[in-house]
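Worked example 3 (structure in, sequence out).
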């Protein structure tokens, strides 16, 4: 039944409880809340479900977008590759026409130089082959503005007219005969260069550039071949022809070297060509002779030999050119195949993601529902745990001071403390033994419970701590466990005592409404030792002679009187505002440590009242004397004894009447005399 209640302790207890409650609330919010939302509410569930669905939805959408972008990039790459294929086809067509015109130019030069001889096949077959290539060519829009190249028909007409003149030897010289082909090849090669430059970002731009440079090298070397043939056939070159030879020969070598730099295997093939072509050394020697420009005797055989050697050399370079073109086509085919594979894989991944996404979202939704149900259960259990913890803490703080309880909860050792000045309050009920004998145990418990609940509610207003209750004894102290400043603890106990005494005057005994409950109160101020005793049911207990003296003040007091010691009076005098009256000296049994005889004379006082407003109990002097006489007069005890004797007499009369009825019944059954 014992517990602690003190105004300061109540505030500290409330702060501790509120702190624990705040920590628990934070714990619940962290576990069950998200972004300040409670997922156990209807709106919170919906928002929480949306948040949980958003978690897998974001990466799924990111994956879909990524695959979509990859698909777009792959399709864009395929589109670019298709453009590259188209441009390569155009470049190949231009290259084929250029090669045919180069070969036709060589044949015509040889035809004019030999006055009608042909080298490989007759000119008609050569013209037909070139015409077929021109017919199959997708005619481009040439960068160089030339009326003859505006369309395919005009070019064919001009080409056929030139061929007719050649076959009829209607040309002033070989230079004039090849000039038309030089102009045509220049325009075709310029367009070829333009087509390749437009696609220089593709994966085949290096072999395409090598292909272009090799065609240009063959073109310039073919032109130089005509002037070389003229040199050996005539024995000398004029200044213009010599410059044309040197220029075209140098450009041919430069383009050939540039072509080798774009692919290592082209360089290897060219070195192989130098080693395997038997006429290569002859070509190099004849080339140096032409560059030296030494006037020689015309030699038709040497001119023919040079022409055959150069023509074979150009054919070998064209084979390398064809190989480059084949590799370009293979590279494009490989990249297109790889691109198609990427498209298929991308479509497959996108299809899988689209198929799996609804399943993932459904599973997440089910898991979220389960988590929300678990969260509700966990939150409910947390609330129950918090509620039970509050109840247990409240009970613990009623049994022990909050500071001591906190130390015990933290498994710390609570050491006993010595307090130099503490005010102790004792009270008990006058005549409690006789009252208990006339009442049932349940009535006694109801009486004490009602009285102590009233006491507990009132002492909450004061800086006091309830130590314990034993039977009808009620013990309170002030000045601990928080040490009181000065003598204010004595004033707190005195004010509380007056309040309790005033409240007791109006207290009604539940099962005896006509009875007036009387209490005695004793107060003493002095040193004590306080500490926690026991481990099974630890109690905060006071020890010391001050406890005994306070108990003696209560036991030697009078009903409706507050009996205090001189030390308490001194403390109250320092505070001021209290009305006290000397009772006199009294013999108080003390411990041998305090008094060698075990007895001591002590001057005691009555605490009458307090200056100020009620509920402090205040009476006048004559009223106090009247109460004192009333308390000393044993009239109340005699009345209780008289009522008890009356009850005994009524019981005896009831038993006599019962015996009398039994005798009358027996007489009725006896035979009459």
């Amino acid at each position: 039944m014992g517990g602690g209640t003190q105004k300061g302790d109540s505030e500290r207890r409330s702060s501790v409880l509120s702190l624990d409650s705040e920590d628990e609330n934070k714990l619940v919010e962290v576990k069950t809340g998200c972004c300040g939302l409670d997922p156990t509410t209807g709106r919170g569930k919906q928002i929480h479900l949306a948040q949980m669905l958003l978690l897998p939805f974001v990466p799924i959408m990111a994956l879909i977008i990524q695959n979509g972008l990859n698909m777009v990039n792959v399709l864009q790459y395929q589109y670019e590759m298709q453009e590259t294929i188209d441009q390569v086809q155009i470049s190949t067509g231009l290259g084929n026409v250029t090669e045919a015109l180069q070969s036709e130019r060589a044949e015509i030069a040889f035809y004019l130089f030999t006055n009608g001889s042909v080298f490989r096949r007759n000119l008609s077959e050569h013209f037909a082959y070139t015409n077929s290539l021109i017919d199959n060519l997708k005619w481009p829009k040439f960068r160089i503005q030339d009326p003859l190249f505006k369309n395919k028909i005009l070019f064919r007409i001009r080409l056929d007219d030139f061929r007719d003149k050649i076959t009829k030897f209607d040309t002033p010289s070989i230079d004039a005969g090849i000039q038309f082909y030089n102009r045509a090849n220049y325009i075709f090669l310029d367009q070829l260069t333009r087509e390749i430059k437009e696609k220089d970002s593709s994966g085949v731009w290096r072999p395409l550039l090598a292909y272009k440079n090799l065609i240009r090298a063959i073109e310039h070397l073919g032109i130089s071949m005509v002037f070389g043939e003229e040199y050996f056939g005539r024995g000398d070159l004029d200044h213009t022809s010599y410059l044309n030879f040197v220029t075209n020969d140098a450009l041919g070598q430069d383009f050939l070297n540039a072509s080798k730099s774009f692919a290592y295997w082209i360089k290897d093939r060219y070195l192989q060509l130098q080693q395997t072509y038997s006429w290569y050394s002859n070509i190099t020697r004849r080339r140096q002779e032409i560059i030296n420009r030494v006037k020689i005797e015309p030699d038709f055989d040497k001119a023919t030999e040079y022409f055959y050697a150069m023509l074979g050399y150009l054919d070998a370079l064209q084979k390398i050119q064809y190989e480059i073109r084949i590799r370009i086509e293979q590279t494009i085919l490989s990249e297109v195949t790889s691109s198609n594979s990427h498209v298929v894989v991308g479509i497959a991944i996108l299809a899988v993601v689209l198929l799996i996404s609804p399943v993932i979202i459904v599973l997440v939704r089910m898991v979220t529902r389960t988590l929300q149900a678990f969260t509700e259960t966990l939150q409910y259990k947390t609330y129950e745990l918090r509620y039970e913890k509050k109840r247990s803490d409240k009970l613990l703080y009623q049994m022990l001071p909050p500071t001591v309880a906190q130390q015990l909860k933290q498994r710390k050792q609570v050491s006993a403390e010595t307090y130099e000045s503490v005010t102790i309050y004792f009270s008990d009920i006058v005549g409690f033994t006789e009252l208990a004998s006339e009442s049932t145990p349940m009535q006694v418990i109801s009486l004490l419970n009602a009285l102590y609940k009233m006491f507990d509610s009132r002492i909450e207003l004061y800086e006091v701590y309830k130590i314990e209750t034993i039977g009808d004894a009620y013990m309170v102290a002030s000045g601990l466990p928080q040490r009181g400043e000065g003598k204010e603890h004595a004033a707190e106990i005195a004010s509380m005592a007056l309040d309790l005494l005033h409240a007791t005057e109006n207290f009604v005994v539940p099962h005896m409404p006509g009875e007036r409950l009387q209490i005695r109160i004793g107060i003493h101020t002095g040193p004590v030792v306080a500490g926690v005793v026991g481990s099974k049911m630890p109690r905060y207990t006071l020890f010391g002679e001050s406890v005994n003296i306070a108990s003696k003040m209560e036991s030697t007091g009078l009903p409706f009187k507050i009996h205090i010691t001189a030390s308490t009076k001194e403390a109250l005098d320092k505070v001021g505002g209290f009305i006290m009256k000397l009772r006199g000296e009294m013999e108080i049994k003390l411990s041998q440590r305090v008094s060698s005889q075990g007895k001591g004379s002590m001057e005691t006082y009555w605490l009458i009242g307090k200056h100020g407003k009620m509920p402090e109990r205040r009476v006048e002097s004559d009223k106090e004397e009247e109460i004192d006489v009333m308390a000393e007069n044993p009239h109340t005890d005699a009345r209780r004894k008289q009522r008890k004797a009356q009850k005994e007499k009524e019981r005896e009369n009831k038993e006599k009447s019962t015996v009398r009825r039994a005798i009358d019944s027996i007489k009725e059954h006896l035979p009459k005399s």
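Notes: The beta strands are 417-429, 465-470, 473-478, 508-509, 512-516, 519-533, 539-543, 561-565, 578-589, 599-610. The longest strand covers residues 519-533.
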